[in-house]
Amino acid sequence: MTHQIPALEMTGISKRFPGVVALDAVDFQLLQGETHVLFGENGAGKSTLISIMAGAASSDSGTVRLAGRETSLRNVADARRLGVSAVFQEFSLAPTLSVAENVVMGEQPSRAGVVSHRAVRELAHRRLGELGFEIPLDAPVETLTRAEQQMVEIAKAFRSDLKVLILDEPTASLNDTECERLYELVGDLNRRGVGVVYVTHRMGEIRRLADRVTVLRDGRYVTTVPGTTSSEELIRLMTGRVMDQIYPTIPPPTSTVALSAVGLTTRDQAVSDASFEVRKGEIVGFAGLMGSGKSHAARACAGVERLAAGHLELHGRRVTGASVAQSLRNRVVYLPPDRKSEGLLLNRPLRESVSLPWLGRYSWARTLVRRRSEQRDVADVLRMMKLSPPDPDRNAEAYSGGNQQKALLGRALLRECEVLLLDEPTVGVDVGARVSIYQRVADIAEGGAGVVIVSSDLPEVLHLCHRVYVFCQGRITAHLQGDEINEERVLQHMMHWDETEAVG
Amino acid sequence: MTDVVVETKPAAARKRRVNVTGAAARVFARVGALPILLAIAVVVFAMLSPNFLTVDNLQSALRQNAYIAIIVLAQFVVLVAGGFDLSVGSITALVSVASATAMSDRLAAGSSPAEAIVIGLLIGLLVGLGAGAVNAVGIGMLKINPFIMTLATASIFAGLALKVTAGVPVSGLPADFSDVFGYSSWWGVSTPIWIAIAAAVVLWALLRWTRPGRNLYAVGSNPNAARLSGISPGRTMALAYMTSGVLVAVGALLLTARLQTGESNIGADLPLLSIAAAVIGGVSLRGGSGNVLNAVLGAVLLGLVTNGMNLARIESYYEMIVLGVVLAVAVLADRLRGRVAAAINAGRV
Amino acid sequence: MTDVVVETKPAAARKRRVNVTGAAARVFARVGALPILLAIAVVVFAMLSPNFLTVDNLQSALRQNAYIAIIVLAQFVVLVAGGFDLSVGSITALVSVASATAMSDRLAAGSSPAEAIVIGLLIGLLVGLGAGAVNAVGIGMLKINPFIMTLATASIFAGLALKVTAGVPVSGLPADFSDVFGYSSWWGVSTPIWIAIAAAVVLWALLRWTRPGRNLYAVGSNPNAARLSGISPGRTMALAYMTSGVLVAVGALLLTARLQTGESNIGADLPLLSIAAAVIGGVSLRGGSGNVLNAVLGAVLLGLVTNGMNLARIESYYEMIVLGVVLAVAVLADRLRGRVAAAINAGRV
Amino acid sequence: ADKPSSSEPSADWFPTAVTVWPKQGFDSEGVEQEYSPTDDVSKAWNICASFPHLADAYWLAADYGVIQEAERAGVNMDVLEAGGYGNLDKQIQQIEDCAQNSDAVIIGAISTDGLNPTIEKLKADGKVVIDFINGVSSPDTTAQSLVSYREIASQTAQYLLDTSDGEAVTVAWFPGPKGAGFAEEANKGFTETLAGTNVEVVNTQWGNTDKDSQSKLIEDALAANPDLDYIAGNAPAAEAAGPILRDRDLTDSIGVLSYYMTPGTYSGIQTGSVLASAADPAVLTSRIATDLAIRALEKQDFDLHVAPALQVIDKAALESWDSTTTLAPTDWSAEFSYSAN
Ligand SMILES: Nc1ncnc2c1ncn2[C@@H]1O[C@H](COP(=O)(O)OP(=O)(O)OP(=O)(O)O)[C@@H](O)[C@H]1O
Ligand SMILES: Nc1ncnc2c1ncn2[C@@H]1O[C@H](COP(=O)(O)OP(=O)(O)OP(=O)(O)O)[C@@H](O)[C@H]1O
Ligand SMILES: [Mg+2]
Ligand SMILES: [Mg+2]
């Protein structure tokens, strides 16, 4: 492999955005048949570099060579023609179109200019099949869950004539089992000589996949190391600091019940007959495969989903059917998993997204906004979350994905809560920031709040939670605590709900 | 909205209720609000006026609305791509005066009627294409907001049409033009209706079976996603506006044939009317969805309601009020359909 | 679009060019397109007509546009919340005839002018609020698409206004009404201008300093996010439409005072005009952004251009064309600003 | 702007038969007499004329009238149009703008009452205000040059009574846009005259006076009343009726009447598709309006309300009728200003 021409080579790539240098003379080299991980903190410039490779953005300076030839990629179509294809961090799906249409978008199989709908479905079916994803081909994409959308997104990039495949946090919303097939496919591609650029914050994925790792920090190239480099070393390279431990020690819970749900069934039947409770000072995990109903169970607790049956109690007080506003007044807060569609006010200053539910608390007579104290508190929280760049008055859409996620979490930390329901809280957040987030969650629990973590990231659930409820097909299939919380048991209950009796 | 069966009822009564409303709900969810509203309109107006449900009247109502239906198709194409066209009315006027001027000039210059007609048709289509191209450049290339761009060109094209004619109808068109394109009929159905049907079928096929057609939906649904899939949203949008311009020209030519003159003050209502018809036909103003048949049905519904009210001699104030109510109800009913479908899916009906 | 300095130039020339265009670009990027376009318009029209740049004319142009500015504010509120209001014109007509009818009836029934005026104002504001409430129910509660709902109510309200007056203007208003609200002035500036300024300031304060104001932006920006934060998008939207209705009523009352009659045939251009002014003022049609000052400046720009063209005796067909071009250029310039800002950032200017 | 018009020589429109009222409005007793414009114009006055719109042949004739008369008399003329009958507010702006550099304003009003404050202010500023064609209720106008639409529609109705000769016949009536002053007036005149006669107005359809809208209204009226005898209404309705009736072979059985004249109805009368049309001499009205403005500015004697004589024109009358009183020449294109220099 020594004299091989690199599949992709970038030199001196720079890119500025208003107020930020996203990339500063970055070099990057991708060999044929290797998986090359891009690693760096949130806002380090990974996604920006990737958009330039994929033709989705232009660089201010620098050159791109594909298979040794200098090329200028003016748009995605150019890149695709040269065999470069990408899964972007933010979904790029057409919500009103079907899954099949989305998978083949831009390259519908056609004969003599006539699109064959049969061929479209076959191609989509094959792509999804290769990845082992089972998604109804005719469902409009807007009706899918985030995880399913992620799968469609991945399927779009797996084309037949690939030379370079770029994956920007493709598994952020998938859980381990669902990721496995993807890893295998990446391996297959490598063997066929396809170079894969892979962005991830999950150390496990680096272990599993990386041939080499390029580290970026603050838009600058730091170094490229072999994939076997230890996690501690990678984190040190990324943050410039040594990080001893990711997960904090979690304090023991109290025995007072904060929130309890009995026989919860949602209107849309996504959850049926689920009973669970959260105690003060306790961190409870909701695990489950995609579409298992874990999110909907959490949403129902915060008044986001309407109930068909069952009831909810907060500190022994009935709060069944409370609206979102009432829940917030009861200090029950739900953070949505999809920061773009349900979380942030994208074209408003980031500050406003953070203080949104709490505006009443920052107002005289709940009407006149005290802008000064709002600004101060939001700035404090975001500083603590290590927002980069630390300027809450930039529009939310101008932040990197991970930083948007931090801001969303900041929303929950802005005010003290009784019950905090975090749905996929650390999607796309870098390891360094995750440490401080986990620490905050532990602190909040210690402060007496009940915390629910809904997550597809199994390690997160395993390490952070006192107890775990496992969901399958809308029902709770297991209730694990203490030593019972381990990977095999959780996985087993996720998939075979009939083997164990539903827990009441 | 949908009645959920309450738990306390005896099971038998419950069962029956489910069956009756259930069947109705299922029909509703299947066919949508539009055919039902059309049926209601037909029944109501048939009761209000004995002349409504005659072959003659229905044929005449459809013929009157044939060119509107074509312009609704033009609007439809643009809406699917996530655009908006407020200039369809002005383009109609401009095409009308341009083609009429061309025909009457040719005729005056001694051409044969057939030659004059062919040239007039060509000029009309070219003007429509050109007007569409202006929109296309502004929206597709310069990325000016479609609402503003077409509002601007609406003003510009109307100014041009007036400049050409000073508001005086252009007369002296070949009689054949009007006879063939305005008043002839084949197998008992008049030509404008045939042309509208042909336009709808062609457009349907283009949107369904060609790649640019599919791209239109993709761009309308999420331009950024389309871009990241290698589709140029700008170029696709430009294509939509040019197609739209040509379709408007077809409608305008039919109208000119019916009026027998080129008119600069026609079409003022068309922009909002065509959008309303398309939306009633289930097209989303956010782009990326809608089907040709329903858009045409939307135009037919509005046309029949107006015709019916005219026949029933409803006072013109009330006509305005009724039309407003029909619009709102049609869209509301479509929303309701979504709910009913969801309820059926959730097994609650 | 933005001129990027080419590499081949000698360094010295390059440097100078950067400084000159650079400074201009920086100013442009800072203040935006609107003030620059306003300045250009003023200079051009001052050259074309000696009467343009007189205190009298500017005062008169502003006074003429004061009520339009208020209606632009009404449109602005709704646009910020992610809505759309095509009924502002019809509400204007309805408020005008309703308040005029009330005043002239009171006066005829022997009330004092002051009493009649107060009642007329109240009725006018209530009708505006009521009309806004109809839109609010349709859009906020029944979730009918704003475009269609307000198109429907535009037709309904216009029908009602005609029904109330039977097409005949309502005269016999108290002279004081017109004197005070249409023609008086304070410190040399006429009352309608003061009222427009007051409305703008109040609205600005409400949007900036109150929770409902902030909620408006949130709902406009992302209704789902707002909902998950305990804000009801429906209720917020409803609030926007009711505020809008009241603002339209204020504008309509001023207009009625200037006309001294209640008229059903006013405001036909207002819906599109007000949206155009707001968009020129940088308001996004996708909701969630825009500021009051710029929206008002947008109205002023359109008003001054029309006034200037009238003074410069530009042929009215060309006026339509020029107005269209100004619209497109204003929006294009605003887009350009973003690019220039980006280029400055990238160190390319 | 001073391109010579190749049309009819513009000098010989006078003397012409007019009715003169001693006061504004139609309440006083009118006197029939001859009218000639003043030949004593001391300077090139600045006059502006405001139209509701300039998008049809009727207002084009008015445009022709004011521009030609300005040329003949040697004064400056500016023409403004408000873009339609829904835009009263815009018309006021235009009048205020143009009044700034005009000595006199000729107003074709969108609204009978809505311009009163504007006119009051113009008067206070010492401007001459001539009310023409549509009519306003303001007491502050200097003079009026306008015919009564009520009268003109009434004459149309009278013609209908005469031709139907006492038989019981039906007519569908298309006055024009609801709420527009001229259409409301015409509606009164038409229905009043036919009230209690054997002519029954079976269908009244209001609508915008574009040919497209009128065309639909006619088709619907025909569907509603299959055995209709007459169609009467605004000029676009009469124009639109031609092809529709021919298509249904009804040209001979349904008579078409218009209450004002346009080139379309004129050629309709020639070809027989229109039975008759009232001729409201828009060109003369406009010329007289211009002359009234000049007389007032010159401080000469003038009449407070002048209206040219009305006529209903059918094929028989067409021969002897001078179309230049009513229609702009076919080669006339809209002019927005004339400057005398
Ligand atoms: N936006 C949506 N539209 C329609 N159905 C949905 C939507 N979101 C979720 N569902 C359905 O609701 C059910 C439960 O979804 P939920 O989001 O609670 O699952 P989840 O376990 O959180 O899955 P994921 O890991 O994908 O987030 C699934 O059957 C899914 O199909
Ligand atoms: N559209 C934009 N406008 C302004 N600034 C932007 C824009 N997109 C990205 N940036 C800035 O560029 C920098 C790099 O962002 P990028 O998205 O490449 O980070 P990333 O490494 O992918 O981070 P993450 O791990 O959070 O996804 C960030 O500081 C971000 O704020
Ligand atoms: Mg990223
Ligand atoms: Mg979930």
UniProtKB/TrEMBL annotation, chain A:
It holds the Pfam family ABC_tran. It comes from the Bacteria. Residues 8-243, 254-498 form the ABC transporter domain. This is Sugar ABC transporter ATP-binding protein. It comes from Nocardioides aquiterrae. Gene3D superfamilies: P-loop containing nucleotide triphosphate hydrolases (3.40.50.300). Coiled coil: none annotated. Keywords: ATP-binding, Nucleotide-binding, Repeat, Transport.
Automatic annotation (TrEMBL), chains B, C:
It comes from the Bacteria. Keywords: Cell membrane, Membrane, Transmembrane, Transmembrane helix. It is a multi-pass membrane protein. InterPro entries: ABC_transp_permease. It is found in: Cell membrane. The chain crosses the membrane at residues 36-55, 67-96, 116-140, 147-166, 186-207, 238-260, 266-285, 292-310, 316-333. Pfam families: BPD_transp_2. This is ABC transporter permease. It comes from Nocardioides aquiterrae.
